[in-house]
Each structure stands twice: as structure tokens, then as C-alpha cells.
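DATA SHEET
Item: assembly model
Revision: 1
Owner: S.N.
Input lines:
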Amino acid sequence: MIELLPQQLVNGLALGSSYALIALGLTLVFGVLQIPNFPHGELYMLGASFTYVLVGYGVNFWLAVPIASLGVVLVGILLDQVGYRRIDRGGNLSLMIAALAMSTVLQQVATLLWGAEPHTTRTPFTGILRTPYFSIGIYQIVIFAAALLCWLFVWLVLHRSRLGLAIRAMAQNRTAALLMGIELTWVRIATFAIGALIGGIAGSLLGAAFPIYPTMGLNPVLKAFVILVIGGVGNLWGAIVGGFLLGILEILVAGYISSQLQDIGTFAILVVVLIIRPNGLFGRAEVLR
Amino acid sequence: MLEIEELSAGYDRLEVLRGVNITVADGGSVVVMGANGAGKSTLCRAISGLIECRRGAIRFDGADISRVGTSERVRRGIVQVPEGRQVFPQMTVKENLRLGGWIHGKAKEAALREIYDLFPRLEERQGQNAGLLSGGEQQLLALGRAMMGRPKLLLLDEPTQGLSPVAIEQVAEALISIGRRGVSILLVEQNLALAEAVGRYAYVLETGRCAAEGPAAELLSSDVVAASYLGH
Amino acid sequence: MKRLLATAAIAALLAGGSTVQAEELVLGEIHPITGPASFYGLVMSQTLKMNAEQANAAGGIDIGGKKYQISIDTGDDQAQATKGVAAFRKLLADNVHFVIGPLASAVAPAIKPVIDARPDVLQIIDGSIADGVVNGKNSFRVQADADTYNDAAIDYLKSKGIKSSAILTDRGHQGFRMSEQRMMKSLKNAGVNIAAQEYFQMGDTDFSAQITKLAASQSEALILRGYPGEGALITKQAQQLGYKGQIVWEMGAPPSTVMKNIPATQMDGVVNCIPRMMADYIRLNVPNAIKVADAFHARYGKDAGENAAFSNDAFWILTTAMQKAGGVEPGKVAAVLKDLKVTDVPNLIIQYKPQENGLLFKNGQAHPPSACQIWHGENWASLPGDHLDLTTKN
Ligand SMILES: Nc1ncnc2c1ncn2[C@@H]1O[C@H](COP(=O)(O)OP(=O)(O)O)[C@@H](O)[C@H]1O
Ligand SMILES: [Mg+2]
């Protein structure tokens, strides 16, 4: 069995890339605005669906990805303005309820528009890289690269731009940020836009690897919340590393213990992390450093 | 410069300020004193627009700003150093200062230079995370950050709270030098010595109302203040 | 004035009464009309409604000298056990005595206890392949049982001389899980070594850990038991991970569904062993199948799904039994069902294998024939030498 380890680790990295990509946008919105944005899973689903529709109309896949993702950005901003902005002072419970409600609404709308039957965008690369130790689809390498690139993009925005300075300020101390003259509205819009963009890209790309259907975002978003706990809320690098860790862990559990325990493994690690490091492996205090 | 007329403000169903009248003259420096819970911080929040003005009016430079957002008030020159310093703990000293100048666009080196000249300590620490500074240093940073906003009126909410005597000294010096530059000051302070050193006119706030006012030197040595502080 | 009103009311009542010449017969159905499995269930419901419309347009169904107008009372189970039980109780509350369905293997076992306790209700299952849901007294099934699926696959392995196989099963699928032990035994008897056995779950998207292990077992074949969405994904990922053996599916897999989840070229050579379904009968030119498919297309503007055949047959089996019983008393209809011959029922699409004495049901279970097909181009194709015996009236 040990001779399968390189292949299983590569499998884990590939799976982890998809988790990391989804967790990235979620951790940003949660870290900056303290909103448990469950509909991030639906933004992911919309990214996938928009891309599928565009490709169906003959648009080139690589052109469809940015168009679809921008569409998702609009939905993301709308989500905040319609769903969250007004109840911002209503407390965590109302935010949670609003989040779940919007998830459901988006799922229903998707069902009405495109039906419930799973479908997959045609993969632009079907090539496979084979080495003596492992093989991996070229497209999985693309997704791996996309996760790192998205992380780099968000990092650059946050640390090398004026807007990023404002977003981080708002994340660390909202009152002080307001007293600097930063407008919450714009930070909200920007944060949701970036979060939705990453979610849209994730869906757009992963929709060519995994089936697309209205509730496809449920499971990934749950995993992403687990990653937030592992990596620390609002910690971008924690989302990436946490995503890879979770992916590898799940594969190792399925590969070496039992495929019946794959999900139990996920929640076991969650509980262990919560007991040993309640603030995540990388710490919650380091919100959007 | 700042005229507050019959201002009422509070939180949800709690009305904290009930008809407050305060005036700060151009280049003037005013001290507001009062027991814990009197509503001093609430007053600062209302002036900055963090909470709404329910009744009455706030005028600044002759214009009514009661309905104007926080950001716009900052742009017009009302900058606050909030209670408890409220620096951005996970950002460097320099980033904190840049945020102070946020409304003026990309921070210019000259503006930073000015602050570093005022507080040399901050320059030494410019690469360090603000959360790692001592309380006194954080307070200087909060002051420096506010100055980056080029205020016309500086609101200070208990800047000496929890500081050592040496640090209080530094803050006092800084405030006096800021006052000399023509910046109007509204200082909320429980430390009598600092209040007397900085303020020229004083108000005493008691459960949301102005209980007394007068030239700082007179008022602060009178019985009224002793009563509201010591609870006689 | 009052009298005038009263007279008018009585007249209206009489007029209303006089139009109710034909009796009304309500048939209940339980299918997933909404939710993720709705693309299976909706066409089943639509097939039933279409059959009822056609029968009504022809003046209704003649039972014991009375003409019955059929109406369909739909219960939506969303393929979930709790929703299914609730939908079923709603039908009972509506005073429904005949139920067609459910489709989902999760729902059938959940409503079984309720059925068992209600001898005045008669059920014909047109979907679930779960074990032990048919009692032969007041519940019958036209869909195959899980063993029919498994045996079809095992027969295929035998015919190809395959000596080792890996198995990957949807662990949430009641029918496949319950029949697992029996399948292992049959494989052993057929001389096939079980090289590895792994599980997944509906909605999973990554199967790489399992496939890596299965591929390492170097089995000659890989049997996939589950639903086509996952089936397509597993097939895709198995190729990525370099699995070289014969992939054998056991699942109802309309080509349209398959191709939504995997490029057609990557499906080439995959074999699917299942009870024959709608598309199969159309391809093999069974007249009843073509008739229903055309009518469905004309009525709804889309193709009837694979499961339409089961619902169609359940409808005709039930109404034929009523005609033979000469009434709509569930106990009597059930008694007729037990003695019903395959050749008694008109309009059947599935060419059931007659049981002893040509009967349709044995202990409540009908026997739809199964067959293996191979993917070619953009569709399933018959394996060489495949042929079908027509066993019903056509
Ligand atoms: N955010 C808040 N929400 C509700 N009540 C508050 C809030 N902040 C202060 N208060 C209440 O308002 C009153 C005045 O508080 P504050 O303005 O902080 O007083 P001071 O600064 O003079 O000590 C107190 O009774 C306090 O409990
Ligand atoms: Mg205070």
C-alpha cells in the first residue's frame, strides 16, 4: 500500500486545491465583515452554471471563465446589499438566517433556470501527466495553479493597494476604520466583489471537473467552513494550507483506513483542532494581517 | 468652529445625551469632564457621526453636519482619537499612519516626516506591528495617526487612560504642541492636571447634561468638579 | 325571493348531479417531482397523467360495467424517506386506495410498514430496487430487484472469461447495499475473484483515493454500482489515474445524462448491465414502446425518460387487474394481480419474463429482462448477438 503514497498525496493535493479555492473567498468575507456567507457555495454554483451556459453558446472556455466570474461578482454584491447590509446590527443569528435563506433562494432559482440534473462543462484539457510515481490530469494542475494564483491576487490586493489597506483596517477594527474616514459601504462592496470573484472562478473552473447542479455548493461550503476553523478565520494562507491539509487528510483516510470514513475523518480533524488549537492552526488573531 | 446645540443621542432605547450644549471656538481648546458613564464617549461618537444625532444640531464651520456621514466629517476636518487608542494591532506603525491620512489619498513622505519629527519614537518603530507597542507608544501612534488626517478639530477621548506618569507627560507635551499649530481641541479627560494644562474652557457632563461650564482654570478647581468626580 | 333562491339551488344541484355519469377513480403516485432526483421522477408522473388523459378521452376505463374517469393524485417525495412517508400519508388522507411508486430506494422501505398495516391499499412499485419492500399481498413491483442488476453484470463477466473484478458501490443506495452479500456469493460461484471493494456516496466528486487502490489491485474489471452522475465521474477519474480494466456499470444511464458529465469519447467501451429500459425497447422496435414515446413527445415536447416504461406498465397492470376483478375493491384487485399473466395486459413496454404458468408476478415481484450494452459514439449499443423475445401483447 505504501507504494501508492505518492499517488495518494498527489490526489490529496488535487482535491485540496479545490477546497482551498472555495475557502479563500469565504475566509475573506468572514474575516472582514464577520458574515457567515453560506451562499458562497451558491456563488460557486453560479460560476459553474454561467460558464456551462456560455460554453454551450459556443463561447471559448477561457473567455467564459472571466465573463462568468464577473457575473458572479454582480450577484455577490447584490447578495450583500439586499441580504446583509440592512441587518448588519441585528446580531449573528439574523445574519446566519439571512445567509441560509439566500442560499435556498439561489438554489431554487438555479433549479428553475437550469433544472436539477447534473452536468459538466467540457474539460478544456483532457491530457494526463504520467510519471513513474503518479499520474495527474493536466486540468488538475491548472486548478492547483489557479488556487495559488488566486491567493497571490488577493494577497496583492490586500497588501499592495490602497483599497486593501482599507479592507484590512475594517477587518481589524471597524470603529477605528470609520474614524479614518473609510466608508463601510465601499469596503463591503469591494470585499464581496473579491470574495465572489474567487468563488466564481472556483466554480467556473471546477465545473469542468465536477458535476454542476443547484445544490453542488452545499458540501464544498461546509468543507470550507471546516478549513476556516483549521486555518484561522480571515487567514488567507491558512485557507490555502488548510485546504491542502484537508484534501490530503481525506484522501489518506479513504485510502488507508476506509472509504466509508472519509467524511468522518474531516469532522474528526475539526474536533481535534478545536480542542488543541481553538483559534486554528495559524491563529484567529492574525485576521487579515 | 464647533457648536453643539441641545444634542440628544444614545443607543437603541437608551437615551444617553439629553440636550447637550457645547461650543469650541476656532483654535480653542475645550475640556469635557464627568464621571464614568456620564456620556463623554457618547458625545465624541455623536460628533464624529458614529451614532446618530436624534435631536438638536451639530454645526461645524457654520454648516449643519448632524446628518452627514462619518467619512464626510473626517474630510471636513473632525478627527477623533478614540477611547482605548484603537490602533490597528496587526498592522505596522507606518501602515497605521498611512491609514490616518487615508482621506488625503496616497500618503506623502512629507506628511509622514512631520509626524516622525513630532514623535521620533514612532519612526524607530515604524516597521513593527502596532499591537506590540507599549500603551504609551500606542497612544502616541493614535495621536500621530489622527494628525495624518490634518484635523481642524481634534477630539480626544481620555488619551491618558491607563498610562504611566511619564507617558502622560509625553501626551501632554504633544497636545500642547498640536494646540500651538492652531488645531482646535476637544479633550475628554479625567486627569485634572492634563485637563488644566491643555484646556482653556471646561464643561462638566453629568448623566447626559452639562452640569457646569466655565474657564478651565476656575471650574476645575471648584467644588462642582470635585462633587462630580468624588461623588459628594 | 327565498323560494326562488331555493329552487335555483336545487336545480343547480340536480344539474350538477346529472353530469356525474361516469365514476371517478383516483390513483395515487409517489415520485420525486422536485429536488435532485426530479429529473427521474417527473417523467414518471407525466407518463401516468398522459395515460390517464388518453383513457379518459376514450370514454374512461370500463370496470364492472361502469365507465371510470381516472385522475392522478401526486405525492412528491423528493426522493427522501421522511418526505415520502408524509406524501404517502397525505394520499391516505385523500382516501386514495391505489398507489404507484415510489421510485427512490430510500423511500420504499420507509413506507413499507405503513403499507403492511393497510390491507385496503394496493401498491405497485415502479422504481426502488431495495430488498424486502414487496410482500406479494398488497405490494407488487414491476421494477427489477437488485439481484437482476447484479446477475446481469456477473453474466457479462462470465461470458468474457473475466477472472477478477473490483467493486465500487454507492453506500447510500439501499438496493445495492442490501444485495451485496448475495452478489459476493454469486461472483464466487462464477469463479470471479473480488480484487478490491470500495465505497462512495451520492454527491461525492472526488474518488481518487478509492480508484488509486482499485487500480493497484490490477483487476480485469471494475463494477460501478450507483447513479450515472457519479458513474460518469468515476469513469473519467479512473482513466486519469490509469485504470486499464473493463469498466462495467450497473445503473440506469440515459445517454443525455451520461454525456452531461463525461465527454462521449471517454465512455467508449464502457459496458452497462441493467434491466432493459425505455430506450432499449425503442431501439429494439417494441411497438408499445414506440407508441408511448411518440405520444409522450407530442404531449410534453421532450423525450420520455428511462423510467417511463415502469410507470406506464404499472398503470396498465393496475387498470387491467381492476377490469378483471370487475370492481375497485383493493383486496379483490390484489387477488387478480397474483394470477395475472404476462399476456393479459395491453400496452406493456417491458417484455417481462413469464414466471411459472406464464404469471407476471411471483411473490409480488415481476421479472423484467436485463441485458448489457456497450457505449459506442454517443449512445449505448447492443452487444453482438443481443436479441429480445416479445412476451407481451403488442
Ligand atoms: N455601545 C453602547 N451600547 C449601549 N449602551 C452604551 C454603549 N456605550 C455606552 N453605553 C451606555 O451609555 C452610557 C454612557 O456611556 P459613555 O458615553 O461611554 O460614558 P463615559 O464615556 O462618560 O464613561 C453608559 O450608561 C453606558 O452604559
Ligand atoms: Mg468613555
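QC remark: Residues 165-180 of chain B form the longest helix (16 residues).
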